[in-house]
Structure formats: structure tokens, C-alpha cells
Amino acid sequence: MNDHLDVVIVGAGLSGIGAAHHLQNTFPGRTYLVLEAREAIGGTWDLFRYPGVRSDSDMHTLGYRFRPWTDAKAIADGPAILDYVRATATEAGIDRRIRFGHTVVDASWDSGTARWTLTVEHDGTTITMTCSYLYVCGGYYRYDSGFTPEFEGIEDFRGRVVHPQHWPADLDHEGKRVVVIGSGATAVTLVPAMARTAAHVTMLQRSPTYIMSVPTVDAVATRLRALLGDRRAYTITRWKNVVIGTLIYQLSQRRPAMMRKFIRAQTVKQLPEGYEVDVHFKPTYGPWDQRLCLVPDADLFRAIGDGSASVVTDRIDRFTERGLLLASGAEVEADIVVTATGLQLLALGGIRLAVDGREVPLPQTMAYKGMMLSGVPNLAFTIGYTNASWTLKADLVAEYVCRLLRHMDTHGFDHCVPVPDPAIDARPLLDFQAGYVLRSLDRFPKAGSRAPWRLGMNYAQDVLTLRHGRIADGTIRFGRATPRGVDSEVLAGPAGH
């Protein structure tokens, strides 16, 4: 573990396994390790164990570009996705390069050696290792705790309160009255799944969310596989879904009234006649100002239609012994309350960065192409799309990192660092109005007012920029190892805002 490595990848989830695959395919002789804080491959898909856990994106875009998704279900459940990620790791031998239970807490760059020194916690001890390039693929939320608001009287409740991020293995909801607090992707997944065996499930929401039904099986993909084979069918289906998703997003941004009307019409068709659609399924914000929730084969609407689930739109006043007292004065009784109230974000997995002995405050850095930090050499990170599948962006970032490393090899460089123009104005990294983002965005790096300092949210545009664009674009400075401190003002300087 004390040997020097060419690359250290942090995280063995969807992004980390994909990054390792790209890296070893491009550079078979390069040394690397994947450091995973938990004890298993899979990241999100190993962590979340709640009933019905599934993707909220189709697997033809959530799957890796290099490994076709061949299962009939385009909207896949958590175990199927976990199997896919683990099979990818095993088949490529990546699983032998993973060190589990290894948490990176500090990373310190030294210009004199052009190396990172990592401080890693493992099994109650602290170890160090060095690497030439650090690639953080741990996502952007905390794995050890989800977000739960302060609820008055929660200690009075005689039932059980659980958060989806920490689902108890012994929780039996059969025949129980369940209240799911929330209206996001987790809530709309939980409600129909639990409604199959619960006495009744109530989705208690403060305000509505846009929800659309999609088919579990992509009929076009199935037909294409029969005609063209897995790989060619996968590529065509992937681009088909990218185009459809982009069209929906662009129409939502440019013609919000039209998309509101369209989504409402689809919702009305799925619900019983006379249902109060405008009370429970008419958000106050515009389509795609927050993530659009997808439900496979209208399962949420069907559960509402058959009476096994219901939606209540109201504010919580307090918990009571029997359930929840609402602002309207109504009380919803429950045996189990599930707080599907969101995530807590955590930038770069909480790793503390330093460059030539100087701490790097993340909010004072600026993100180059949404994947590197101003003033921080030889570091990349992955943040996926908020308006499309995470892996679409993760694949492109991995391809870009490989292109960047090849460029450095070709020209004899051992470090690179993005340096912004001081005239660029700072912007929030994520232009997204979800509560879990807004709560933590001030602790993240900034974006810039113009390219290449914006976090792109258009896959087709990013394909041109990240897969085919120039590496030496005048913004990244390349160099060779220098005596300690020579470049420290450049490397650890402010973000230019």
C-alpha cells in the first residue's frame, strides 16, 4: 500500500468502476487502485435497500457506453443494476484492484515531486500512499446519513420512523399503515412497492412533483436487439433516448406552459375520473426546474387507482402518538413513517485538499468543465447530469481523463492545472432548484460565467467538447515537477473571482 501509484480512483460505485475500465483499457501498463470506503462494490446501488429501489433513468443511458445493457427491462431494479456493475468489475479484473474499507481523508499535492500524498483510514489505522493523479468518483452525497428535517413531537410517536438511506433489514410492513413523507424519486418508488402488502400507504407531500409514466420495457430496444444484435442496438437505443430526453428537457425550459399541459393530460389519463389532479399533481415550479420523476408502467397511479395508496398534500404540524397531525387539522394515522425527505450533499467525499502546504477551500475554487478544480493539479472528479442519466457524463469524464493523461505522456508533462481568467464571474456549480442541492451548494466549488467553466448539462454538446475537443485549450497549464513552492501561487491561488 505504500508503493507509488499512477492513478488512485476514489469510489467503487457506478462511476469508479467505469473510470477504472476506461483507464486500464487505455493504459494497460498503468498502475492504479480503487479505494472504497464501504465494504462492497456498487456505491448507491449497494447502499439503498428500500422496497422497490430502482433507477429513475433508462438503463440504455444509465448503463456504460462500453457494456451494453441487454436485460428486457429498461427501467431496472436496484439488484439488477448492482449485478451489472459488479459483473463489469469482475469481468475486467477491476475487483482485484479495489481496497475496501479505505477512506481517503486528506490529499496533499507537492509540486517538487508532482505527486499526491493521500492519508487513508483503514480498520482503525491511518496509512499513506502517493499517486501521480487523483480521480474522485464518490458522487456528491453523504453515504453515512440522509436528510431528515426537525419534526416536532417525533419522540411521541409510538410507531417506527425510518429513512430510506438506512433501511432496516427487519422492517416488516405487511398489513401496516405506512406514511411516506416526500414526493421525490424515492417516495414515488416506495409507495407502490410497499402498497402491495401494506394495509395502506399514504404519500404525504408538502408540495407536488412532476411525475410521468414510462414503459418498463423499451419495445424499440427489444426489436433492435433481435435485428442488429446487442451492441449496435444498444448504441442506437442510447442515442434515441438521449434525443428524446434532451427534447423533453429543452421543451420544458423553453415552452413550460406547453409541457405543463402535456404532463397534466398524461396524469389525468392515469388516475381515476374526478381525481383532484391539480391539488396533488400540479407543482408550483416549472417542468425540469427540479428533476422529473419517472414511474414504470404507471405503478404509482395504479396503486392510487386501486385504493392501496393515496396522496395527501399538506404541511406537517407535529408527530402524535398515532401518526401525524397536519396543518389543516387532519391527522394521518400510521404504524410506520418513512422520511423520504432527501439527501445530504458532500463535495469530493469530504476529502481535505492541500497544494504545496496550503489548504484548498473548495468554495474558492472554480470547476473546469465540471470535472477539474482551478489551482489544483492532477485531479478530476465526476458529477453526472441532473437532467439525464449520471453515467452519460461519467463515461465522458473518464474518456476525457484518459485523453488528458495521454496528452501529458506524449509531451512529457507530469502535471496539469486549470487556471481561470480573472474576469470570469462565479456562479453556483449546479443550476438546479432541488432542496437537497440548495441546502449544501455553498460548500461546493463554483462554476464560471462562460465555458469552459460551466458544468455542462447537454450530452451531445459534451460529446463534442470532452470526447473530441482540444486538450490544450489555453486554459490548462502543463508542466514538469518544480522545486517546492515555485508554482504555488499559480497552483493554489484563488479561483479568479
From TrEMBL:
Keywords assigned by UniProt, alphabetized: FAD, Flavoprotein, Monooxygenase, Oxidoreductase
The protein's name: Flavin-containing monooxygenase
Necessary cofactors: FAD
Gene3D superfamilies with a match to the protein in the record: FAD/NAD(P)-binding domain
Superkingdom, taxonomy of origin: Bacteria
InterPro entries recorded: FAD-binding_MO, FAD/NAD-bd_sf, Flavin_mOase-like
Assigned protein family: Belongs to the FAD-binding monooxygenase family.
Documented EC number(s): 1.14.13.-
Single GO MF descriptor: monooxygenase activity
SUPFAM superfamilies assigned to the protein according to its UniProt record, in alphabetical order: FAD/NAD(P)-binding domain
